[in-house]
From TrEMBL:
Key word Transmembrane present: yes
Any Pfam family hit: DUF4405
Top-level taxon of origin: Bacteria
Regions that span the bilayer: 7-31, 62-82
Domain spans labelled Flavinylation-associated cytochrome: 9-79
Protein name per its UniProtKB record: Flavinylation-associated cytochrome domain-containing protein
Keywords recorded for this protein, A-Z: Membrane, Transmembrane, Transmembrane helix
The species this protein was found in: Thermacetogenium phaeum
Length: 92
C-alpha cells in the first residue's frame, strides 16, 4: 500500500475515533449527576443512556488510548515534513 493510502485510512480512523470521543464525552457529561440536563439525583445515583455510566467511561477511556496511538502514528508517518517545517521556521 502506498503512503498516501495509509495516510488516508489513518485519517479516517482518527476522524471516527474523534467523533466517538466527542459523543461518549457528551453522553457522559449529559448523564452525570448534577449536569442540569433533567437528572436531579434521587433514588438512582447513576442514570443510563443505552449503556450504564461506567460503560460510557470505559468506552471513552478506550477511545482516548486508541486516539493517542493513532496521533503518534500520524506524527511518525509525517516526521519528515515536521522536521522540515521546524528547520524552515528556525532559519527565519
Amino acid at each position: 500500500m502506498r503512503k498516501a493510502e495509509v495516510c488516508f485510512w489513518l485519517d479516517c480512523a482518527l476522524f471516527l475515533t474523534g467523533v466517538g470521543l466527542a459523543l461518549s464525552g457528551f453522553v457522559r457529561w449529559s448523564i452525570s449527576p448534577g449536569s442540569g440536563w433533567g437528572y436531579g439525583g434521587g433514588r438512582w445515583s447513576h442514570p443510563e443512556f443505552i449503556f450504564p455510566c461506567v460503560t460510557w467511561l470505559n468506552i471513552h477511556k478506550f477511545l482516548s488510548i486508541v486516539f493517542i496511538c493513532l496521533v503518534v502514528l500520524h506524527i511518525a508517518l509525517h516526521w519528515d515534513w515536521v522536521a522540515a517545517m521546524f528547520r524552515s521556521v528556525l532559519r527565519k
